């Protein structure tokens, strides 16, 4: 898969693994200044893990489907400071697979309709976005593959070993896509300290770059912009 971020070889201090349809337009500062990966669009899941370990950023941020992929493979990852934003264990635990089946079918027929509905429900900012602006081959097929992945992928939480990694979870209590109780469950299973689980009372599934950077700064004293 080809990376669509023009700044892929930028600073290795931070890598951002986005979610399904989490295009760079919605994360302009991260995508323009740091390594920015979109599952199924720029990299397949197994390629993401290889790229993380090859680049070895100081901080790894992952959102939604990206957070799920990182959590699933956390035993294999060498990065020591990880922020998972709106993570989940198994998508069908809270979304009926029939919804994913319909999305998979309709995204091939009416891609912008499906994407706009998702963007609205997830609370993305309204921007001048059109799928034709995304310069990559087989985009629709890749998005469909992502939906198939969501139906079947599951984290074996009991086999995870943080191995001295510092893991933080960030989740909005108003998330309309992934319930914040998923972060509750992950934190309990991994026995994370209370200060490593950050709940936001505003926002939705999409959390702005400024809000994410504020939280990361509070936890690491590191500014990214």
Task: Describe what this molecule looks like in 3D.
Strand 5, helix 7 and strand 6 form a beta-alpha-beta unit. The longest helix has 14 residues. The chain has a 6-stranded parallel sheet, with helices on both faces. It has 225 residues and is α/β, with parallel strands linked by helices. Helices cover 37% and strands 14% of the residues.
- Summed up, the helix count is 8
Q: Rg to the nearest angstrom?
A: 16 Å
Q: What is the H level of CATH, i.e. the homologous superfamily?
A: Alpha/Beta hydrolase fold, catalytic domain
Number of strands: 6
Task: Identify the notable features of this structure and list them briefly.
225 residues, Rossmann fold, 6-stranded parallel sheet, 14% strand, disordered N terminus
Give the topology:
Blueprint: E1 11-17, H1 28-33, E2 34-37, H2 45-55, E3 59-63, H3 65-72, E4 81-85, H4 97-107, H5 111-122, H6 139-152, E5 166-172, H7 181-190, E6 197-200, H8 209-220
Parallel strand pairs: 1-2, 1-3, 3-4, 4-5, 5-6
Helix pairs in contact: 4-6
Short description:
By secondary structure, the protein is α/β, with parallel strands linked by helices.
């Amino acid at each position: 898969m080809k990376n669509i971020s023009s700044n892929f070889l930028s600073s290795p201090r931070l890598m951002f693994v986005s979610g399904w349809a989490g295009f760079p337009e919605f994360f302009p500062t991260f995508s323009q200044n740091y390594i920015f990966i979109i599952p199924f669009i720029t990299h397949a899941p197994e390629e993401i893990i290889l790229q993380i370990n090859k680049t070895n950023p100081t901080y790894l941020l992952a959102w939604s489907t990206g957070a799920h992929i990182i959590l699933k493979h956390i035993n294999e990852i060498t990065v020591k400071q990880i922020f998972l934003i709106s993570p989940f264990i198994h998508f069908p635990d809270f979304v009926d697979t029939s919804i994913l089946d319909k999305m998979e079918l309709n995204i091939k027929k009416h891609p912008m309709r499906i994407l706009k509905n998702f963007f609205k429900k997830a609370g993305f900012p309204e921007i001048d976005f059109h799928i034709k602006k995304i310069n990559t081959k087989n985009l629709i097929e890749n998005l469909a593959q992502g939906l198939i992945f969501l139906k079947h992928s599951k984290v074996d939480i009991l086999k995870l070993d943080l191995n001295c990694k510092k893991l933080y979870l960030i989740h909005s209590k108003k998330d309309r896509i992934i319930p914040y109780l998923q972060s509750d469950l992950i934190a309990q299973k991994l026995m994370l300290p209370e200060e490593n689980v950050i709940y936001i009372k505003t926002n939705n599934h999409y959390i702005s770059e400024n809000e994410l950077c504020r939280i990361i700064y509070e936890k690491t004293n590191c500014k990214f912009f």
